[in-house]
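#struct-help
A.M.: can someone run this one for me? Single chain, 431 residues.
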Amino acid sequence: MVIDLGATAREGAVHPSGADHERPTRRPPGTWRHPLTVALDPPGTSATTSTTTGLVGLAALTSIGAGAIHAAAIGVHSEHRPAVVAFTAVAAFQLAWGVLALVRGNRLVAVLGLLIGTGALAGWALAKVSGIPFVAGLDQAEPIQTADGLAAGLALTSVLALGSALWPEHDARLRLKAPLPLMAVGVSVLTVFGMVTAGSHAHAAGDGHGSHGTVAADHHGDETGAGDHVEDASAATVPYDPTKPIDLSGVEGVTPEQQAAAENIIAVTLHGLPQWADPAHAEANGFHSIGDGFTGTEHFVNEAHMDDDVILDPDVPESLVYDTSGGGRRLVAAMYMLKRGTPLEQAPDLGGNLMQWHTHDNLCYNADGKVRGITDASGACPAGLVKPVETPMIHVWLEPHPCGPFAALEGIAGGRIPDGEEVLCDHAHGD
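D.P.: on it. Structure tokens below:
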């Protein structure tokens, strides 16, 4: 008897034993040789019922963990909307991809996860090295902290797992096989710990972000009562940005009342001072230039406002400060002044170490109220020029300043401060 061996491969062929034999299954064209599945169970096993975790499964769990930590960090950056949007987007992508990979771990999903994980790691590295310039709140470099370090570690694990799974020469014998519940518990522990520590994340502030900074001057520090609560200098500080909520916390020696007073002065000024943005409008209402625009900063003063009893009011400011460095005049600050002749020592202590009044007793004016010189070694002005009476004044800036929102100008324009004090430079709230 002749047996056709090729008949076993055809439908209906009879095995020599006489038993029917099923037609062998064939792999559809284009099918990946080693399908990426959450588990390495036999084909057809549901991922949701799997008891072992493959590389894509590990990547999914760690991506979910990283996303959860990023979600927990959203509230810590609530004062910076761009940072909130960035954290929300990263968290959403990592969480959504992790869930998708647990349900459908194919090659396309794996490639998508690799892109998401790599992007998250690149953003994290940029934020730590130089800051992300186009995301407010993340635009200054920060040190690595526990929460973001864990999130980055989980994202890196996800990327490495996916890279291994997608490697062309990947051998099925080297695939990860670990109990799914054990892996889930391990990642969950790290995730919960990262979420808890995210609540204590100290983000960028002050000079270089993350520095808490103290004020060089101890302005009226002895006047703070022993029973007054004083701000903790170790509290995180926020750089002054007029486009964001005002927060002057974190300066040593400042009571809550002084902080509130200083913040209120800034808020009122930001709201009311822009009405004087047009120099022509200011001149039409009694202001005139003192002729110092060649320095890059020009002051307009109002003699009537300097003699009234109103202070720190943007509707009737004593002096306006314009930036002339660009060729025009851009309103950048108010220079509020007390009534002419008020001794510097009698300036009100409203903001404590946040605010420092100064006077100009070294400038000499002509009869038209223009600055035309400075005093000599004996404190006298040249013939034909006069020195104005002592008048305490303070700046309130409409834009960020390296020395904070109440910074005086530098050099001769900085004026004289109370004896025994140092020039205030509020690095904690400087830009």
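A.M.: thanks! Residues 1-25, 27-51, 202-234 have pLDDT under 50 and may be disordered.
D.P.: also worth noting: The chain has two domains: 47-198, 271-429.
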